[in-house]
Specification:
Blueprint: E1 3-9, H1 15-28, E2 32-37, H2 45-48, H3 54-63, E3 65-68, H4 82-90, E4 94-100, E5 113-119, E6 129-130, H5 135-146, E7 158-159, H6 165-181, E8 186-191, H7 199-211, E9 218-223, H8 224-233, E10 240-243, H9 245-258, E11 266-270, E12 275-279, H10 296-308, H11 312-328, H12 334-341, H13 350-359
Parallel strand pairs: 1-2, 1-3, 3-12, 5-10, 8-9, 8-10
Antiparallel strand pairs: 4-5, 4-11, 6-7, 11-12
Helix pairs in contact: 1-10, 1-13, 6-7, 8-9, 10-11, 11-13
């Protein structure tokens, strides 16, 4: 049995608790991992003067693979987000968010099986902004007016929305490659090209061009507002979604809501040279240290990591064990218990839930 070397970032709040649960489950599934533990977030600010120390970047660069718990970006740290900083540093252009129904969670739908590919590096999240009353804002306002591109009110802040051929084609190609490799039937490109004819129009054209290279996979394009409506009326109509950054952020959380919320939502940020896996929910400092957090999303993120390193059987067995625990309905954390019964009374803690998953392997 080979040993995999992987960076672990426990994170803040409930992060250390749920990552420990994930480690226990992976070990119980028989996968040998040499964890390289490094810390990031609010807890390291005093020691390192930054929430993202160089040693974190160095470790990920060395291993090429990391999994993290939720981290808190301190106010005034100079970072918009630690997650965004990691994505930019390693060019993690794919945000991968699988969403599927697990019986026994109390979710509104029982037939969801959607995989979301969100472009991770540009669009409105590129961070190219001009503050209200700044010289840059005034220059952009005058520039747009002089060239007949449109008028902008003088009391405006401005964000730019870059959409490139390079980034659009590589995220769409990633979605189609995934569909081929995993026996998926359809890829839906989501856009607002009817209004943003140049930026979203470019994304749509790129998607159409890439789709022509994959004749065996059905392709459709859908406007983002229609997509949201159809997701909540009949999510079974969707298979693989590919979206620009902003729409992907919103729609991925919408889809998580279809299957029980962010506590059920694993995720990954993947680039050519590195991949970082993570539960997408917050650090929940209000319940940190209480041992009641639901580790499902972190464990499922661990399953995504296992698939990434070729440990497919272990990933399959862990997912099946989680489904078994939820179907039995006897060992459930408070968030799920409250959805099912209206009260968290009698709920299991993080450790008991993890024990049940391990027992079901």
């Amino acid at each position: 049995m080979s040993t995999h070397t992987i960076t672990l970032i426990p994170g803040d709040g409930i992060g250390p608790e749920i990552t420990a649960c994930m480690q226990r489950v992976i070990a119980a599934a028989g996968v040998d991992i040499d964890w390289k533990v490094v810390n990031a977030g609010a807890g390291v600010m005093e020691e390192h003067g930054t929430p993202l120390p160089q040693q974190v970047l160095d470790s990920i660069a060395q291993t090429g693979i990391a999994i993290k718990g939720p981290v808190t970006t301190p106010v005034g740290s100079g970072f918009r987000s630690i997650n965004v900083a990691l994505r930019k540093h390693f060019d993690l252009y794919t945000n991968l968010r699988p969403t599927w129904s697990i019986k026994g969670t109390g979710a509104r739908y029982s037939d969801v099986d959607i995989v979301i590919f969100r472009e991770n590096t540009e669009d409105l999240y590129a961070g190219i902004e001009a503050e209200l009353d700044s010289p840059e804002a005034a220059e952009l306002i005058a520039w747009a007016q002089d060239r007949g591109l449109g008028s902008i009110r003088p009391d405006s802040a401005i964000s730019l929305k870059p959409i490139s051929v390079t980034c659009s084609k590589r995220i769409v190609r990633a979605a189609f490659d995934y569909a081929v490799a995993n026996g998926r039937r359809k890829v839906t490109a989501v856009h607002k090209a009817n209004i943003m004819k140049h930026s979203d129009g470019l994304f749509l054209r790129c998607a159409q061009e890439v789709a022509a290279e994959y004749p065996g996979i059905e392709f459709e394009a859908m406007i983002v507002d229609a997509t949201c409506m159809n997701l909540v009326t009949n999510p079974a109509n969707f298979d693989v979604l590919v979206l620009p950054n902003l729409y992907g952020d919103i729609v991925s959380d919408l889809c998580a809501g279809l299957v029980g919320g962010l506590g059920m939502a694993p995720g990954a940020n993947i680039g050519a040279n590195a991949a970082i896996f993570e539960a997408v929910h917050g650090s929940a400092p209000d319940i940190a240290g209480m041992g009641i957090a639901n580790p499902t999303a972190e464990i499922l993120s661990g399953c995504m990591l296992l698939d990434h390193i070729g440990e497919h059987d272990a990933a399959r067995r862990i997912r099946a064990a989680i489904e078994s625990v939820y179907a039995a309905g006897e060992v459930l954390t408070g968030d799920i218990k409250k959805i099912l019964t209206g009260s968290a009374q009698g709920a299991a803690g993080s450790t008991a839930f993890t024990d049940a998953v391990i027992a079901a392997l």
